[in-house]
Structure formats: C-alpha cells, structure tokens
C-alpha cells in the first residue's frame, strides 16, 4: 500500500479504541478513521430530521443520501458534517449514545457506508477503529488488535473524560450498564456483529495506562510495517 499498513482496532464501548487509534496514527504519521463517528453522524442526522427510530430499519439509500452526512479527510483524520455543518460535538451527545446501536444494526445503513469507509483505506496509512474493522471492513488489515477492558473501568474512564464530578459507585455502575447495553446490541445483531477477528491480537487494557497501550500497539505496528522505531515514517 503506498502510504503504509492498515491497522484495525475493534472492541466494546469505552475500551480505549478511539483515543488509542488517534495517538498511534499521530506517532506513525497515519490518518485516523473513527468509524463510529460515521454511525453517530447518521444517527444524529436522522434524529434531527425527526425520522422515527422505529422506522430506521427500512431507511432507503436515497433517504440516507438526503441526510447529507459526510466525512471529510483532514491531515490527521476525518471531520464529520451534516448538511455542511461540523457535528464533531453533537455526535457525542447522550441522545446519540442511546440510539446509535439501533441505527448501526440496520444492514442497509452498513452497506450504504461501506464504500466511504473502504475508500479511506485505499492508500493505506490508516488506523481505523470500530466494531467490524478487522472482520468486515478491512479483513486484510496488516495489524488487528481487539481491545477489552472491565466494564466498570471503562465506565470510570468515560465519566472522567466527560469531566463528571460524581464518580460514586452508583453512578459508575449506571454508566457501565449503559455501555454493556450497547455492547449487547452490537454483539448480538446479525449484520457485522462486534466480535474478535481470528487473527486479532487481544489486549486487555484494564491494568494498562493509556501510554502503555499506545506504545504496545505502536510497537506491533512498526513490526508489521517493517519500520524501525527510530526511523522516519514519512
Ligand atoms: O466510542 P464508543 O465506543 O462509545 O462508540 P463508537 O466507536 O463511537 O461507536 C458508536 C456505535 O456505532 C457503536 O456502539 C456501534 O453500534 C456502532 N459502530 C458499529 O456498529 N460499527 C463500527 N465499525 C463502529 C461503530
Ligand atoms: O473508542 P472507545 O469507546 O473504545 O474508547 P475511548 O473513547 O478511546 O476511551 C475512553 C477514555 O478512556 C479516553 O478518555 C481514554 O483516554 C481513557 N483511557 C484511559 O484512561 N486509560 C487507558 N488505559 C485507556 C484509555
């Protein structure tokens, strides 16, 4: 591939995929593709357009086109817009969290997105994170990592990231239950369910610091790409 290898990071919600992918991409001079951002942007757009979630299962490609959802390549990753407006903040809202798995379970929606996701990897030099990157989107990725982590640790990380003041056991458990609810839908759906690819390296991040897990994946990536740790990757 002209620009480098493809690295696929999959795993449940809050396991650290996206932040790790961003950091690894920065270190390698690769681009980061947050595939969840695409599902989030479609969900946000459908909610905003007032389309009843109960009818999402029958959304046609033409209807999806009219939602005007796009991912724009930047130097370092992809910026999501809906109707030409940047929605980076909006797609992280609790309402989107609560509905995104329902949208992502729709086979027609996944099909509709596939070309755009694959296009992002056409030249390589990509770190992509999601649920089905190593199994469906880029089954020939040179490096696949599957990140796992205890649910309460994932909840704690998520709450800290949001700057939550209340980190009581009760609050952490409620967030863990929300994450596991999403994992349950993502793993049990028929279309591209969340699962580990046979050739993925499984990394349990529960006891790792963020820097440790980034270094671990960066090391594996350099090995697979045949690039020396000290060499210039560009
Ligand atoms: O960051 P977080 O783990 O909370 O979620 P995300 O990666 O932004 O993904 C949001 C949702 O999009 C997931 O819960 C899945 O339902 C869906 N998704 C998917 O189905 N396939 C992907 N490759 C990425 C995300
Ligand atoms: O993309 P995904 O939902 O899998 O997770 P994320 O949004 O990348 O990570 C959730 C949060 O956990 C981020 O704020 C990371 O910095 C943090 N994190 C951590 O505190 N310690 C780790 N070992 C890994 C991630």
From TrEMBL:
Catalytic reaction equation(s): dCMP + ATP = dCDP + ADP; CMP + ATP = CDP + ADP
EC number(s) on record?
Answer: 2.7.4.25
Q: What are the subcellular locations of this protein?
A: Cytoplasm
- This protein's GO CC annotations: cytosol
Q: Which GO terms describe its biological process?
A: nucleobase-containing small molecule interconversion; pyrimidine nucleotide metabolic process
**Entry keyword annotation includes Kinase:** yes
Q: Which residues form a coiled coil?
A: none
Q: Which NCBIfam families match?
A: cmk (TIGR00017)
Q: List the protein's name.
A: Cytidylate kinase
Q: Which organism is it from?
A: Longimicrobium terrae
| Originating gene | cmk
């Amino acid at each position: 591939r002209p620009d480098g290898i493809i690295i696929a990071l999959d795993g449940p919600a809050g396991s650290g995929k996206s932040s790790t992918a961003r950091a690894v991409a920065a270190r390698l001079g690769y681009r980061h593709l947050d595939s969840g951002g695409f599902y989030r942007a479609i969900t946000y757009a459908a909610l905003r357009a007032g389309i009843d979630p109960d009818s999402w299962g029958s959304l046609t490609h033409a209807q999806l086109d009219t939602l005007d959802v796009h991912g724009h390549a930047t130097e370092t990753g992809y910026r999501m817009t809906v109707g030409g407006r940047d929605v980076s903040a909006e797609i992280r809202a609790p309402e989107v969290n609560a509905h995104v798995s329902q949208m992502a379970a729709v086979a027609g929606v996944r099909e509709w997105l596939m070309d755009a996701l694959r296009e992002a990897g056409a030249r390589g030099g990509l770190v992509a994170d999601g649920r089905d990157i190593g199994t469906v989107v880029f089954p020939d990725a040179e490096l696949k990592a599957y990140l796992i982590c205890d649910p309460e640790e994932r909840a704690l990380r998520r709450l800290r990231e949001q700057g939550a003041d209340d980190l009581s056991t009760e609050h952490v458990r409620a967030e863990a239950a929300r994450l596991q609810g999403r994992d349950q839908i993502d793993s049990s759906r028929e279309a591209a369910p969340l699962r580990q690819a046979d050739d993925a390296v499984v990394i349990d991040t529960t006891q790792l610091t963020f820097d440790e897990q980034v270094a671990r994946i960066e090391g594996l990536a350099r090995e697979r790409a045949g690039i020396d740790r000290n060499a210039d990757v560009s």
